[in-house]
Amino acid sequence: MNKLDLVNAVSEACSISKKDADAAITALLLEVGKALERKEEVKLSGFGTFLVKDRKGRVGTIPGTSTKINIPNTKTVAFKPSKQLKELVK
Q1: How confident is the model over 28-87, as pLDDT tens digits?
Q2: CB within 8 Å of 16: residues ≥ 6 apart
């Protein structure tokens, strides 16, 4: 499913226009992104939690040359599914 499919599904489920559904989904995604930028967790009951995690630096190897490089610490976005979501995909 891509964003267009989601817009169509929300439009039908809520009996709203596709334009309004697209605006609502776009606003939701924008706000989730802003919260993660502030390092806040985003908990969606019955769905899961988006959070920012620290990834430790490590030593990597360039394939082909076997040259060692240092990969610095970084931050990444993680998703922890809720119990209900886990049950749906069993």
Answers
A1: 999 999 999 999 999 999 999 999 999 999 999 999 899 999 999 999 999 999 999 999
A2: 10, 24
Residue 41 near residue 51, CB atoms below 8 Å: yes
CB 52 within 8 A of CB 79: no
Which residues neighbour 22 within 8 Å (Cβ) at sequence distance 6 or greater? 7
Token readout for 7 is 């817009």
Alpha-carbon distance 90 to 84, whole Å? 10
pLDDT value of position 20: 98
